Amino acid sequence: MQKRTAAISLTLLVLAGCAAQAPDVAAEAASPYPIPDEVVAVAGPNQDLTTARLDPADDCYWYYHAGPVETTLVPLRAANGNQICNVRAS
């Protein structure tokens, strides 16, 4: 009887750890992309914006493209094909 009670108690403890957590409202309100909304608006289709980042070396945005053989860093492009970069101050 003790083994059965212990097994049930252990099962309940494990399942309690799997309980759904309350959603974080602030996290849901935030953009899922680590780049500004303006960049998201001009970015072309079929690019993984969740991996996009600004490269400080050239002040342009890059993202990881997962190809069939390798994953490589490629420039983030606008819908017209131009690379998306910040304007540098003179």
From TrEMBL:
Signal peptide: 1-22
Keywords: Signal
Top-level taxon of origin: Bacteria
Name of the protein in its database record: Lipoprotein
Species this protein is from: Paracoccus maritimus
